[in-house]
Amino acid sequence: MATDQTILIVDATESQDQILQNGPFHHISVSPNGSYVALYTGDGKVWVIDVKFQQKLSEYDSGKTDEIPLDVQWCGIDSVVLVWEDEVHMVGPAGAALRWYYDSKVNLVPEMDGIRMITTEKCEFLQRVPDVTRSIFEFGSSSPPAGLLEAVGHLERKSPKADDAIQLIRPSLPEAVSACVQAAGHEFDVDWQKQLLKAASFGKSVIELYNSDDFVEMCKTLRVLNAVRFYEVGFGITADQLERLTPDKLIERLVARQEHLLALRISDYLSLPTDKIYIHWACMKVKLSVDDEDTICRTIVAKLSGKRGIAFDEIAKSAFEEGRGRLATQLLNYEPRAGRQVPLLLSMEEDEIALDKAIESMDSDLVFYVLLHLKKKLTIATFFRIINDRPLAYSLIETSARNIDTELLKDLYYQDDRKSDGANVILRESLMQENFTTRIDKLKLASKLLKDSKEHALDSSALEESIKLLTIQESLERDVFEETFVGLSLNDTIFKLTRLGFHPRANKIRSEFKMPDKRFWWIKLRGLVAKREWAEIEEWSKLKTSPIGWEPFFNECLSAGNTKVASIFIPKCRNLGPAERINMWVQCGMIVKAGEEALLAKDYTALEGLLPKATGAAIPEIQKMMQKLRPGR
């Protein structure tokens, strides 16, 4: 930053005064390589100093103390160019300078290897003569590349001196060939390009082993450069600039100038992709053509048909931005990738077409993307109307809603009159409710949904009974401390009440739910056994009949380890045969009783089987019984 008599170097944290005394400075220009700085002083002088502001390398007096230049720029890293309204000074090393005068204003455009000077009439490019060019064309040059160029001249004139010239430079012939190739790249004149390349070709033909890659590459480069330098194109670029720019960027610049045909030819020549050129051409066709939309579509499709990598969605987007929505939709029909079609269709508000394209692609993620977009944008009624006729979309929404959005799932089932499915959703919600009142309310709502349908009358009745049971269980939890009833089945509820000794309440619930006698007796029996209410069980044995028979009483008591009570029920098992009752007595450890059962049945074989099992006083008892039934007596 120039201020007063000095210059400050400023960054985000500090500023450093370079302590200069010759200000003020009207222009500051840094060389392309960042090593030097050109300063234009208030007394019309140009200073070139190092970037550290410690050493002055050269000084030039422009003689214009009363007129500040319009611009100061570097020409490469060798010279500084100053421009006034119609005058240009070029300052070289040691203060040497050249001057040019113009009839109009000059604008300077610095380049990496020179500088452009643009007026209203022409564009000139100024650069230092490359070393390789100077070594060839400098007056009196005896360098090997100059000798090679001279040799090819003799060859063209069919002079025997050609061979002599080659022999003189034969040791340095590879270097001479490379120099001629490089020099050809620096030339703007096509004739000199040809002459230098001819010299290089002649030289490499003499060399036994020479890699021609650089030569071939330069031929390609010059062909491209000459094409873009043609006056109808006017792209005055150098070989060094092209190398820095890259052919891909050159194509982009040509396309930006709408030089599509030339861009295509260069791309084909250099084996570069052409899809972006075709796409840009089509976009320009859409923007600038006055034809009707059908004609434009046919023209574009005919031109791009069979071309690889063409993104019709980009062309369609251009058409949409130009207000040609119908043309955009037509063009999108030729885009094979649904992932490119769908987002643009959505931005064009062609929602249903976008959904259909996504479904046709069979890409569930893409379909879901469209559905999420539509759900945010549309009313719920419109959204459901769109998906109802599309099974894949409907299925995806149902699956997604089942996992993450139960409210949407309920709305979906409601509008589709799927009352049973809607009731199931509410049932699942009720199971996740911690608040008892909320759970009951949801169950009532599910029951109401099912009650409206004759097909699900039984389900509705079951839900009402569940509500009734839950209400009773909640009441039981209030009355019976530290016990949990809510969530138990009817059977488990009665079993728990029996086990806890609340027989009247168990009987009342049994009556309210009209539980069958068989089931109630089974539940009550197991509850009493679990509580070890043997006295109550013995009271049952005094009854004449049991809806479940008496064998379950025997089995439950025996399983609980009470053989005494279990044995009470053996005589009541009249439906069983003698052998089964004998086995029951044996299980209770009552061998004599088993023997009496066998004697009563006159089963000598059974008595024989009991004798090994008998112990103590039971042995003579069994033997007496066997004596009574002994055969032949």
Automatic annotation (TrEMBL):
One of its GO terms (cellular component) is endosome. InterPro entries: VPS16, Vps16_C, Vps16_C_sf, Vps16_N, WD40_repeat_dom_sf. Residues 8-216 form the Vps16 N-terminal domain. Gene3D superfamilies: Vps16, C-terminal region (1.10.150.780). One of its GO terms (biological process) is vacuole fusion, non-autophagic. Coiled coil: none annotated. Residues 310-617 form the Vps16 C-terminal domain. It holds the Pfam family Vps16_N. GO terms for molecular function: actin binding. Belongs to the VPS16 family. This is Vacuolar protein sorting-associated protein 16 homolog. It comes from Orbilia javanica.
